[in-house]
Amino acid sequence: MAEGNKRYLILVVDDDERIVRMIRLNLEHDGYSVIEANSGMEAINQVREKLPHLVILDVMMPGMDGFETLSLIRETSQVPVIMLTAKGEEEDRIRGLELGADDYITKPFSPRELMSRIKAVLRRTEGTSGMDTGEVIEVDEHLKLDFGKREVWLDGQLVKLRPTEYRLLYHLVQNAGWVMTYDQILAKVWGYEYRDETHYVRLYINYLRQKLEKDPSNPKYILTERGIGYRFVDYKKGKLKEGEGETKENSNNQEESHPSNN
After folding, report:
1. Which domains, from first to last, does the chain contain?
2. How sure is the predictor about 260, in pLDDT bands with cuts at 50, 70 and 90?
3. Which of 65, 103, 242, 252 has the fewest CB atoms within 10 Å, counting from its CB?
4. At 48, which helix (H) or strand (E)?
5. CA distance 37 to 32
6. Euclidean distance between CA atoms 37 and 1, whole angstroms
């Protein structure tokens, strides 16, 4: 039993008592503390009252399904959420990620796979605490980044980023001017367990562009290197000028505008 996991409280949400029992037994075997919910509304109340470190949430539940439950959770909490989806339901996985899920796992799944995903999500969401460059980065007159305070400012307004978005931005900025491949991004941001999940990268790049770019279809900060990966514009070479970085992107707009189709 992993004693160090006792500090983590995990909420398991599923109307199937057999699934809940199986997950609970495996979590407790690995040393986690577990609470349960059998409906969406019960899950929302548990998140508010118990403040779990992570939620495992089934999509298919009667009444309030997992998607609606996730949407309501995200109104008040950024707790990491792993969705349980039916095998082969790609639309469910994409929809869950778009609503703010941190990961998904398809049924049927092995206990080992579940534990691996839980550890990866907890590691990823906690890993941003040490991201302090020691300075405020002024990319240009519009965008300022303070990784020490976990703050991103665009035109004087604080931009709210989810933990994974923040972590992705951090690694892109730390490698500004250099191309990061899909494999490098997945390893740094999600972990080596996600080496085949390239659609995560496209989806979260799109999220960042929607929040940071004046024109997400013609980005000047987060640039695409087709078939290779992405790079953050090299702001260190001098202050960015209006329109810089857009030329290379024009041929790639269609690829990034609908990431869920890739």
Report:
1. 3-128 (3.40.50.2300), 131-261 (1.10.10.10)
2. very low
3. 242
4. helix 40-50
5. 16
6. 24
